[in-house]
């Protein structure tokens, strides 16, 4: 009888949680000073800039034209690299590590700029027999890495703003 009650309670709680549409609101973590920023990059239509704008929008951060009273997020450099981790017996590359390093800076209103850098790594199994499929998979992985780097930049930007606020 007790096991039956436990099972019913477990099923009911899972059904209630999955049916209610619960999800985290990341925009609530962003302080008021960073809810409106200006975003700058060398090429505003490259893949990293587009991923950054998408993540800013998902975090409920308004992107506006440069002004003196808003924070400025500037992406300086995006470096990508891949390194061979393992090889097949025949000497062909088997597995690679894809590496993305992004450097940016944040200038809070009426303050100096603070450097932010993030690094994202992923492993990629490279099979030369399925080159076209692996090329598409590789591009999907790079896009996911760009979005993860953008989320990390936003998290570091929020943490930096809290550090500057508590240091005053």
UniProtKB/TrEMBL annotation:
Protein role: Together with LptD, is involved in the assembly of lipopolysaccharide (LPS) at the surface of the outer membrane. Required for the proper assembly of LptD. Binds LPS and may serve as the LPS recognition site at the outer membrane.
Domain of life: Bacteria
Protein name: LPS-assembly lipoprotein LptE
Keyword Signal: yes
Alphabetical list of PANTHER family matching this protein: LPS-ASSEMBLY LIPOPROTEIN LPTE
Mode of membrane association: Lipid-anchor
Subcellular localization(s) per the UniProt record: Cell outer membrane
Subunit: Component of the lipopolysaccharide transport and assembly complex. Interacts with LptD.
Family the entry assigns: Belongs to the LptE lipoprotein family.
UniProt keyword terms in alphabetical order: Cell outer membrane, Lipoprotein, Membrane, Palmitate, Signal
HAMAP family registered for this protein in UniProt: LPS_assembly_LptE
Signal sequence, start to end: 1-18
């Amino acid at each position: 009888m007790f096991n039956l009650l436990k099972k019913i309670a477990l099923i009911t709680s899972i059904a209630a949680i999955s049916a209610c549409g619960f999800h985290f609101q990341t925009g609530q973590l962003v302080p008021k000073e960073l809810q409106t920023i200006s975003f700058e990059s060398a090429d505003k239509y490259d893949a990293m800039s587009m991923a950054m704008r998408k993540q800013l929008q998902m975090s409920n951060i308004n992107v506006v034209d440069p002004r003196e009273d808003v924070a400025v997020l500037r992406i300086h450099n995006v470096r990508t690299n891949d390194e061979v981790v393992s090889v097949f017996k025949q000497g062909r590359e088997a597995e690679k590590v894809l590496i993305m390093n992004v450097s940016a800076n944040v200038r809070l209103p009426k303050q100096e700029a603070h450097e932010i850098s993030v690094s994202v790594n992923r492993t990629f199994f490279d099979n030369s027999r399925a080159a076209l499929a692996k090329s598409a998979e590789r591009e999907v992985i790079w896009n996911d890495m760009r979005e993860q780097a953008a989320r990390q930049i936003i998290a570091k930007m929020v943490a930096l703003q809290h550090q500057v606020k508590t240091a005053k």
